[in-house]
Write a structure and sequence with these properties.
Helix content: 40-55%
Shape: elongated
Distance between the termini: 53 Å
Structural class: alpha+beta
Number of helices: 2
Length: about 80
């Protein structure tokens, strides 16, 4: 990795640690569950089962996809 890119990445992470992340909603799973991404450092977060934001792991990503599929099928069935 280039030294300039490496220092830029660490600078962005340092800014997020000092001032907090700038989260943007990337995906609405249900009415209560969302996926977020930091505009500055690229950190991905999601709501856990208690409603607290936690880091999006591959396992949580799979769970969110399954919940989204189930939610959309059920919601589509109720409106039809």
């Amino acid at each position: 990795m280039n030294i300039l890119l490496k220092s830029n990445f660490f600078t962005k992470k340092l800014i997020c640690r000092m001032f907090g992340h700038k989260l943007v909603t990337t995906k609405n799973i249900t009415e209560h569950i969302r996926e977020y991404q930091c505009k500055c450092c690229g950190l991905e977060l999601t709501n856990n089962y208690k409603g607290i934001k936690s880091i999006l792991t591959p396992e949580l990503k799979d769970v969110n996809i399954t919940v989204m599929d189930f939610y959309h099928r059920r919601h589509h069935r109720q409106t039809a």
